[in-house]
Design goal:
By secondary structure, the protein is an alpha+beta fold. The protein is built from four helices and five strands.
Length: 130
């Protein structure tokens, strides 16, 4: 799937965001190696701690369907510069795709590209005691 199509899917997903407290609407489109795309939009809660980010929602949908081989995620916001995934989302993404490509786009066409390793160089990993 072309990046432009993924960006459009993320922007459409953003329209389904529930963000009455922050008014910060985020959409995500997660591409798997098999070519499937899972989308998500942030869902806020008045306690904030129970809020679910768009990126994690897309990941959870994919994993729930048995799809865990991710190659790229697009995050769409109205911010300038485009917003990157939060730390919690970065850590969740690292569980499944250490070499994930991350595309951050805004509604005005600005696009920034990263690797997960650039955004989270020292991800937490379960290690056995030696």
């Amino acid at each position: 799937m072309r990046e432009k199509e993924l960006i459009e899917k993320a922007k459409r997903a953003r329209l389904r965001a529930y963000a009455p407290y922050s008014n910060f609407k985020v959409g995500a489109a997660l591409l798997t190696r098999s070519g499937k795309v899972y989308t998500g939009a942030n869902v806020e809660n008045s306690t904030y701690g129970l809020t679910v980010c768009a990126e994690r929602l897309a990941v959870f949908k994919a994993v729930n369907k048995g799809d865990k081989d991710f190659v790229k995620i697009v995050v769409a916001t109205d911010r300038n510069p485009p917003a990157t995934p939060c730390g919690a989302c970065r850590q969740v993404l690292s569980e499944f795709a250490k070499s994930l490509k991350i595309v951050c786009a805004n509604l005005k066409g600005k696009i920034e590209r990263y690797t997960l390793k650039e955004l989270l160089p020292e991800a937490f990993e379960e290690r056995s005691a030696e």
